[in-house]
Amino acid sequence: MKDAILLVTGISGAGKTEVMKALEDIGFFCIDNLPPSLLKDLVKLPEFSEDAEQRVAIAMDMRSQSMFLELFTAIDSLQGSGNKNVILFMDCADDVLVRRYSETRRRHPMRESLNIYESIATERAALSEVRERANLILDTSHMKSHELKERLGQLILHRDIELDMVLEVMSFGFKNGVPLDADFVFDVRFLANPHYDPALRPQTGLDAPVADYVFAQPEAVQLLDSIASLMERWIPMHAKAGKARLTIGIGCTGGQHRSVAIAKSLADRLDQKFNFVSEVHRDIRPIGSAHN
User: Is the full-model pTM beyond 0.70?
Assistant: First the structure.
């Protein structure tokens, strides 16, 4: 979808707001509730983005019947722009729409009719041509939020977005407190401590001699393998549940040697499978008298 706009429209109550949130999570620049008459001015927007891979999604809601003609005109300009733009039509079963409006107590935008069923039918008929012209149709009748994001990844990005979970592997020292934002915490203080080697004490787990010292212990290698296997198995489950970010804490006493070496190696392992992995070493600082 490079140099293209994703136009999101469809039946009121079908979940356009949730779709825009999900698209934002998977990297789209999103514009919500754009008046159709302004679409022609935004067709060239992707060309002006500093990020060559930036994707743009625009949602259009029908606030009144007078906007339907504008929507058709906007779609004509979108399809005639020369870019490979995509129209995503959101749909939903009538009984589910009625329940959603009942639960939220919101008024249907088609205000000419007092009956919710008639309002839905009127809008559905008015949007039938738009639906026929759509590239993609997404029925949200029985779809949960996390399933919606997964389905959008398949429809639009043509890949498994579970691999797009943003992962942060953080080393830290327990003496400075456990990171409050850590989703998983692993304690590596049982490993032999490089601090007690005078030659290694001034260094950190980012230095090869310290890393070699740590991983000369069979337990360290086994620990790394165990944590990596655990994360590779359960990170996709968190992604399926709708979580977009995960922090993995690796702790030793001071956050200088053991936790740093393990965290760096773990980040390297996870980076081979997942798309967005970073490492943070919270407590690395000049070594004083504290153990790590």
Answer: no
